[in-house]
């Protein structure tokens, strides 16, 4: 194919004549032919590289420079790394051929080569906004509107889909984007914003009130707009946290994400890049909180769920509360009527071993109202929603410089012990605070832990007249009792100012009708399906609303035997 050398795309005439058009066509044809030839030559190689599986390569910790070593390996082995890690771990992620994997495994500087795998957000689909829902915040006796005046000093990294950075309800700032490096960590899915709201939504008059209202949140985006990601992106996020924890005073990281993974060994010996990254972040002082997963299996059993299964992580199971109150009288929650008030959530993973139980705690995770993209609220269920209750509680326990909490100055391991001990002690002192299936009433082989408790938070200072700030629950969502103590004239019935369980009145004593150990609370034969495809929004209001009169708590339901279907709730399947 020949083409006049003088024919170029830069035709000088404004209206091209037939000749110019012919030259133009020839030039295009030539270019296309050249491109096709190029593709014929390079295409297979390019396509092969793009379809090679991705691996996470870890260097030995003694390696002086990740950049130099990786640059060298890229040249000699002929690959291009997609992500490099230099803080939590040393290494990189890249698509590699079998030959490249073999070569890297033989490299004296390489400690391990691990196949990447997908991770997911542990949540369910949103339900109808505006549905009457319980408040996990009040159930765990977290800070109220008044006590929230003192925001915790430390920041929380939300390792998730990002955070809605312009949401006025959230004190959220850019962390990093591991999906599109260099881009904003603005949430494009909604999961991370919902999680962020539970941790630290402010009391400024919109959305919800979080456990640690106003705490600074760093958006660390490791999941894309579909809520999916990979371990390599998760490690990128943990790497960023480890690198910036000191400078940004990040004391906590919430990971409402996970995947099946290898059985953890120990921080000292592991070659699992995800585990190594978590260990490093813990070593620099970050308390790592992870959701246990929603498959109704042991996270430390035959199907290991990570990062929850790493012993250095505070793993969070989900319990169900429908009325923001202890006592198991709330009936089934509106958004998931198969669940029962103050019982384990049927979908929740749990610990099956003593090692797993030793780093597990529970929090409300069913029908949780929190912030969504652009303002407003939505209701979600999952251990993804339970974990942020605990992350916020750790923030309260750390407190601020001016007002240190009981966890101030502790290592992450000590904080985990403290949180669990406080929760267990409170459930022992006030049995009604607990839930069916908790540490006081465990089913055989299923440890969900004790319900996290924030009731130690000092009483609010003398309330300044009627709070001038608008009531917190968004006007669009007036039925949600998210703001227990705000003098909200529009607030509906359940008066959460009633101090929950009166210790002197042993309410539904979970110890008396202890669940038959042979009858695990949640029916194992009908594990809630992984709640990703959540049941359709239940258009009907909860059949049994909380008693609008004060002091609902201590009234024991006469039938609150812990036995399977004889459960306490008034609705079908409440504690099945
Ligand atoms: Ca708010
Ligand atoms: Ca309840």
Q: CATH-wise, what's the superfamily of the largest domain?
A: Peptidase S8/S53 domain
Quick one: how many beta strands? 18
Strand content: 5-15%
List the ligand species: calcium ion
Supply the CATH architecture of the largest domain: 3-Layer(aba) Sandwich
The overall pLDDT average reads: 75
| Radius of gyration based on Cα positions | 27 Å
| Tally of individual domains | 3
The CATH topology of the largest domain is Rossmann fold
| Total count of helical runs of at least 4 residues | 10
Low-confidence stretches: 1-25, 27-46, 124-134, 145-149, 459-463, 466-576
- The separation of the N and C termini measures 77 Å
Order of helices and strands: HEHEEHEEHEEHEEHEEHEEEEHEEEHH
Shape: globular
Helix content percent band? 10-25%
What is the highest CATH level, the class of the largest domain? Alpha Beta
Biggest β-sheet, characterized? 8 strands, mixed
> What structural class should be given to the helix and strand makeup?
alpha/beta
């Amino acid at each position: 194919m020949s083409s006049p050398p003088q024919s170029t795309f830069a035709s000088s005439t404004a209206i091209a004549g037939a000749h110019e058009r012919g030259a133009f066509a020839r030039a295009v044809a030539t270019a296309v032919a050249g491109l096709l030839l190029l593709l014929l030559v390079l295409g297979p190689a390019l396509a092969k590289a793009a379809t090679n599986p991705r691996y996470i390569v870890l260097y030995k910790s003694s390696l002086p420079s990740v950049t130099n070593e990786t640059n060298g390996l890229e040249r000699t082995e002929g690959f291009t790394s997609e992500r490099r890690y230099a803080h939590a771990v040393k290494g990189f992620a890249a698509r590699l051929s079998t030959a490249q994997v073999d070569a890297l495994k033989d490299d004296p500087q390489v400690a391990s080569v691990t196949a990447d795998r997908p991770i997911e957000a542990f949540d369910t689909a949103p339900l109808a906004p505006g549905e009457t829902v319980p408040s996990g915040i009040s159930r765990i006796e977290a800070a109220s509107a008044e006590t929230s005046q003192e925001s915790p000093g430390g920041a929380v990294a939300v390792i998730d889909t990002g955070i809605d950075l312009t949401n006025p309800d959230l004190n959220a700032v850019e962390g990093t984007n591991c999906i599109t490096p260099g881009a904003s960590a603005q949430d494009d899915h909604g999961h991370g914003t919902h999680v962020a709201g539970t941790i630290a939504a402010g009391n400024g008059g919109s959305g919800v009130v979080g456990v640690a209202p106003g705490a600074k949140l760093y958006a660390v985006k490791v999941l894309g707009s579909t809520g999916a990601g990979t371990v390599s992106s998760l490690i990128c996020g943990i790497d960023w946290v480890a690198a910036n924890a000191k400078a940004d005073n990040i004391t906590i990281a919430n990971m409402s994400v996970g995947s099946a993974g290898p059985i953890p060994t120990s921080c000292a010996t592991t070659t699992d890049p995800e585990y190594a990254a978590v260990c490093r972040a813990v070593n620099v002082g970050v308390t790592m909180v992870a959701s246990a997963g929603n498959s109704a299996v042991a996270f430390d059993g035959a199907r290991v769920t990570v990062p929850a299964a790493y012993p250095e992580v505070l793993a969070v199971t989900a319990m169900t509360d429908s009325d923001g109150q202890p006592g198991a009288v709330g009936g089934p929650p509106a958004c998931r009527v198969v669940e029962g008030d103050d019982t384990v959530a049927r979908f929740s993973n749990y610990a099956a071993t003593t090692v797993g139980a030793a780093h597990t705690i529970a929090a409300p995770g069913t029908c949780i109202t929190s912030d969504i993209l652009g303002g407003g609220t939505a209701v979600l269920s999952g251990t993804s929603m339970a974990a942020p209750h605990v992350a916020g509680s750790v923030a309260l326990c750390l407190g601020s410089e001016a007002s240190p909490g009981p966890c101030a100055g502790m290592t992450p391991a000590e904080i985990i012990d403290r949180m669990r001990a406080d929760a267990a002690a409170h459930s022992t002192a006030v049995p009604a605070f607990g839930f069916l299936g908790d540490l006081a009433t465990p089913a055989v082989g299923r440890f969900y832990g004790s319900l996290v408790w924030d009731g130690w938070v000092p009483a609010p200072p003398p309330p300044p007249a009627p709070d001038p700030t608008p009531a917190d629950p968004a006007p669009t969502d007036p039925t949600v009792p998210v703001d227990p103590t705000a003098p909200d004239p529009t607030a509906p019935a359940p008066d959460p100012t009633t101090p929950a369980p009166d210790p002197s009145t042993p309410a539904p004593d979970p110890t008396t009708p202890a669940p038959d150990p042979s009858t695990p609370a949640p029916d194992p034969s009908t594990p809630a399906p992984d709640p990703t495809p959540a049941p359709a929004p239940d258009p009907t209001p909860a059949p049994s609303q909380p008693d609008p009169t004060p002091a609902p708590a201590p009234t024991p339901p006469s039938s609150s035997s812990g036995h399977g279907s004889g459960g306490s709730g008034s609705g079908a399947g409440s504690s099945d």
